[in-house]
């Protein structure tokens, strides 16, 4: 890309994207005043607005259903109090990219996925199968005509009562035919994309939060929090569409207008880039609130 004189500006959506911009603004402000970042923890979620979280998962899709489900099964790596852990995604590399190598805790959500394997019962050209039959197959039950109550009991033994009730409420134990999409992930994505979609009069809600622990040169410690909350508009755009689409569009225009001269694969980490992006996002009404409190 560099040799071809091409710019690929990546990670300029919501997460990754706005999370980087707000993190770097806060981190650089602290460092410029002599502070040291001891811990950086970041969370971001796209959810239905609270009044519309009315199903067993308290969730409805505002972005790619397959991506949402991949997010729940992806491998992971993060740094906590000097120890490397592995619950969800790789956060460790961002310590150096953010310029906070001294931090003993580094946790953020950046996606990297591995595709699951096809399941023979879900081949599109295979025999028809119902959700109830597929549940029996996954549980190793030879008789798919098992009484419904017995199936629910066996399922509860495997995943707990709450989990079994959630699957039941989502219709995943019914005798309705499955639209087979090869893999369990793609099949359930297709099903839930229809079952858990936002209705026309419903709105979504995006929340992003950074939590930093800071030590100053005089030994004092503080906790700094950056919070962004954006609610969708049922007459216009979802919060997810705004917080992903706007920064992407702004970044694309910056490249086209020659404001970003760097060539190759580029991240929005330089002050010139992230400050300009944040300024334009704020002009469009996407803002965050920063608070500070002492830890001593």
TrEMBL record:
Native organism is Operophtera brumata
Q: Which UniProt keywords apply?
A: Oxidoreductase
Q: Does the keyword Oxidoreductase apply?
A: yes
- Which Pfam family is one of those matched by this entry? Sacchrp_dh_C
What protein name does the entry list?
Answer: Alpha-aminoadipic semialdehyde synthase, mitochondrial
Q: Which GO terms describe its cellular component?
A: cytoplasm
| Gene Ontology BP annotations | lysine biosynthetic process via aminoadipic acid
Entry keyword annotation includes Secreted: no
Q: Which InterPro entries match?
A: AASS, Sacchrp_dh-like_C
